[in-house]
């Protein structure tokens, strides 16, 4: 009988995974291939994977040292296959496939946790449907952005935390530890999330019945050692991940903090931004407004806890810390001028709160029939409210400008076509920071010297000496063009003030220069 149940659950899990993946990737292909819609950050991760294979010599270091590498690493096999079908790269299909896989994986992890805590299968499916097809969660499942992958690791870590809280088995701590490390290789938000997770683990160690039973009793010193050992297990993989990332930056670029302070870092991007507000209160209002579509479920859980008298129990503070951590983090980032304040930065509270939901539902199941129905209805209502609010925000370009901003590919393809047809044998120097979309549309890259090329900086200092015959330069007055290495090294270049090169061709937002001497 037990074997049959296991086989049945496996069929359900497989069906869920395949079904969610198909529904995600279907829209990913529709938006990417047929609508030619690509988000800038998603494309950047694909481009970094592209440079590994197609910038000579092929090497893993070409994946870059600014964006966390895992989303690009996961795309490597698909990007390699772009030699057979170019849209995997040029239309962002590779990124969409990866994010769709992790969106499906998130639903599977959640389903297993719901079932393990004996939540009704029908109710589980209803909750999962409202979560997986929440407009924001669904959109970030297929758009190739790194958030969808990060959501998966956070959900997995929190699901393990809940099961550890219920069962007290140490292997869950090890699973959380590796999930945190992998989340760091996706996004830096893993750091505040890991800090919140550590606080939550400590609370559960000393107040959670199942976990507390394993803590040595009667000795404060022994309890401290137990907590210390748990923290070491929890944070060692993350610490190793951080050290590895800093070491890669140091060995490859000579700057251990290259990802933080280079010309291509987030701080460089932000130097071009005016910020969202000049006052702490203005920023606080902004944060609340951006967070609003994602917090109804948290509010619903608060209402449920009030109804069953559990609001101030120890486990609520674990949820509160986990849910608030990234909102507070991005508030601080905005205060320091270190964040763009995009909508997606405040969305983490939704998957974090939803991953906690099985624990709440397991407690609801202990109530009488009427109260149980009332509390279950509150949860569904809160998910519906979040569904409506996120849809409203995503439909409004003023409230979600990044989600409505697609890369303009027409001119990039025109430039790539011009180079392929007219300059196939010429050696062209360009900074891939801005020209990445042009590069991935080229038929061949052998004549291009780009940021990932071993001799890029030598060629930048003396183009003629190293055989450079053409320069492709973005307009420094548009977007991030002022951060381009050629514009930074030769401030008058785009305006035609450099005598050693002459303007060859003008494109929208770019110029092609011929090197004379």
UniProtKB/TrEMBL annotation:
Coiled coil: none annotated. Keywords: Membrane, Transmembrane, Transmembrane helix. The chain crosses the membrane at residues 12-34, 88-111, 123-142, 148-165, 172-188, 194-211, 232-252, 283-304, 316-334, 340-358, 370-389. The keyword Transcription regulation does not apply. The keyword Glycoprotein does not apply. This is Dolichyl-phosphate-mannose-protein mannosyltransferase. It comes from Desulfitobacterium chlororespirans DSM 11544.
């Amino acid at each position: 009988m037990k074997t049959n149940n296991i086989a049945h659950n496996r069929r359900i899990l497989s069906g869920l995974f395949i079904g969610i993946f198909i529904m995600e990737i279907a829209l990913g292909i529709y938006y990417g291939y047929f609508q030619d819609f690509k988000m800038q950050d998603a494309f950047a991760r694909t481009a970094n994977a592209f440079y590994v294979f197609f910038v000579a010599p092929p090497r893993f270091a070409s994946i870059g040292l600014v964006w966390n590498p895992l989303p690009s690493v996961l795309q490597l096999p698909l990007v390699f296959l772009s030699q057979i079908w170019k849209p995997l790269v040029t239309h962002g299909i590779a990124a969409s496939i990866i994010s769709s896989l992790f969106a499906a994986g998130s639903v599977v992890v959640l389903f297993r946790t719901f079932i393990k805590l004996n939540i009704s299968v029908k109710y589980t499916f209803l909750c999962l449907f409202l979560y997986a097809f929440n407009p924001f969660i669904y959109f970030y499942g297929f758009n190739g952005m790194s958030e969808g992958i990060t959501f998966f690791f956070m959900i997995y870590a929190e699901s393990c935390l809940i099961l550890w809280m219920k069962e007290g088995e140490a292997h869950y701590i090890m699973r959380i530890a590796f999930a945190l490390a992998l989340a760091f290789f996706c996004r830096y938000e893993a750091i505040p999330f890991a800090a919140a997770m550590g606080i939550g683990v400590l609370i559960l160690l000393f107040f959670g019945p199942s976990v507390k039973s394993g803590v040595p009793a009667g000795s404060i010193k022994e309890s401290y050692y137990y907590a210390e050992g748990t923290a070491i297990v929890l944070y060692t993989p993350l610490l190793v991940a951080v050290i590895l990332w800093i070491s890669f930056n140091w060995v490859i670029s000579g700057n251990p903090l290259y990802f933080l302070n280079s010309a291509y870092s987030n701080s460089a991007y932000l130097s071009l931004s005016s910020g969202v507000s000049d006052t702490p209160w203005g920023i606080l209002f902004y944060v609340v407004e951006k967070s609003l579509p994602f917090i109804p479920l948290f509010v619903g859980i608060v209402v449920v806890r009030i109804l069953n008298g559990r609001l101030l129990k120890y486990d609520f503070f674990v949820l509160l810390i986990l849910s608030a951590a990234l909102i507070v983090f991005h508030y601080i980032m905005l205060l320091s001028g270190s964040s763009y304040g995009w909508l997606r930065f405040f969305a983490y509270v939704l998957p974090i709160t939803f991953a906690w939901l099985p624990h709440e539902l397991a407690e609801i199941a202990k109530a009488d029939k009427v109260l149980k129905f009332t509390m279950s209805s509150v949860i569904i209502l809160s998910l519906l409210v979040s569904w409506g609010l996120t849809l409203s925000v995503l439909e409004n370009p003023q409230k979600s400008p990044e989600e409505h901003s697609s890369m303009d590919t027409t001119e990039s393809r025109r430039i790539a076509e011009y180079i392929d047809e007219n300059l196939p044998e010429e050696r062209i120097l360009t900074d891939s920071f801005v020209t990445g979309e042009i590069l991935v549309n080229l038929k061949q890259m052998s004549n291009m010297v780009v940021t990932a090329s071993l001799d890029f900086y030598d060629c930048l200092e003396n183009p003629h000496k190293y055989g450079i015959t053409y320069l492709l330069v973005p307009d420094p007055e548009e977007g991030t063009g002022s951060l381009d290495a050629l514009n930074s090294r030769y401030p008058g270049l785009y305006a035609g003030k450099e005598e050693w090169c002459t303007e060859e061709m003008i494109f929208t937002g770019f110029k092609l220069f011929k090197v004379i001497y």
